[in-house]
Amino acid sequence: MGNHQEILLKLSGLSKNYGAKRKLFSKSKEVVHAVRDVSLEVKKGETLGIIGESGCGKSTLGRLITNLEKPTSGEVIFNNKKIESLHAKEMFDVRKQLQIIFQDPYSSLNPRKPIGETLKEPMYVHKMSPEGGLDKRVDELLELVGLNSEHKRKYPHEFSGGQRQRIGIARALSLNPSMIVCDEPVSALDVSVQAQILNLLLDLKEQFNLTLIFIGHGLGAVKYVSDRIAVMYLGRIVEIGKAEQVFNTPSHPYTKALLDSYPPAHPSKRKDSPPLIDGDLPDPIHLPKGCSFQSRCPNVQEKCKLEQPELVNCSEGQSAACHYPILNLDEREVT
User: Fold this and answer.
1) Biological process GO terms, please (predicted)?
2) Residue 22 CB: number of other CB atoms within 10 A?
């Protein structure tokens, strides 16, 4: 995983609020709390997976990290620079090192340009002069992602979803970045194609010593590629730890419920009716006092309704934001 002593990315108290539609005759402006007080570190050469239900804020977090959105409060420190406060020229230089792969591989490509021109564009913009010229570099990028030089004359609609995502990966690699944020890069693809893209990402990570943030809701995919995993619930990190720790011995009740709702791959381990998370997802506008998971938690106690828990160590390398974390669980497997 490379040099884990060097912190490449640090988030400190990161929050993002959006204005909601005002109700009829309401005088107060309502706020959606999309990301709430997120603090974490990502070390050079590792892959941090981020999982959670739809609407938990994980994609918003990815956009904050890449400075596609500005935080309401808090800091994003990438390579020792506070990127949310950088001037346009400074951020322009940072973008070469910090790239993103989007969920929808079709809408992220210009349908009016052949992909060769799409891959050249970032290099044009950043005035790069690769050895052998731009055309040679495009051929190299296509080969890296399992395509060939003849593909550069084709347009996005002529490719399958998996091929388009390979093109998106090639574009992210064109500027030789040190970190790539992968925002649910396989969720729109067939299962058989997902495995190919995941293996490609792992190979490229090893080849170029990349640091990855892998955002997803497919638990098996996130586990497969990640060194550590952060679990998000209603905009907050509720658990973080090594991938094997989080999946085999979860400490937060939400993490356990999330894993239990995922059917094991082997038929002998499947239950007749997988347990689901009880209750409805709380309104992100009117969040409850105390723990946000209290209305759905089987272990809720009075303290949970009064005090919001902070992330605390449950075991070496594993933390959970829970007043009464689960301990000493039997091992479980998610594939």
Assistant:
1) peptide transport; transmembrane transport
2) 11
How do residues 6-15 score in pLDDT, each as one tens digit? 999 999 999 9
Helix axes 161-173, 134-144, angle to 10 degrees: 130
As separate numbers, helices (DSSP H) first and strands (DSSP E) second, the chain gives 10, 12
Interhelix angle 161-173/191-208, rounded to 10 degrees, is 20
Whole-Å CA distances, 45 to 2, 5, 142, 192:
5, 10, 23, 27
The total of other beta-carbon atoms located within 10 Å of residue 220's CB is 17
CA–CA separation, 244 vs 332, rounded Å?
10
Rounded Cα distance between 305 and 295, Å, is: 9
Q: Nearest CA to 174 among 217, 139, 212?
A: 139
224-237 pLDDT, tens digit each: 999 999 999 999 99
pTM confidence score: 0.90
User: For 7-16+32-226, which CATH class?
Assistant: alpha beta
For 200, the token pair is 């490609």
Show me where the domains of the chain are located.
Answer: 7-16+32-226, 252-264+273-329
Q: Which of 1, 237, 226, 213 is nearest to 100 (CA)?
A: 213
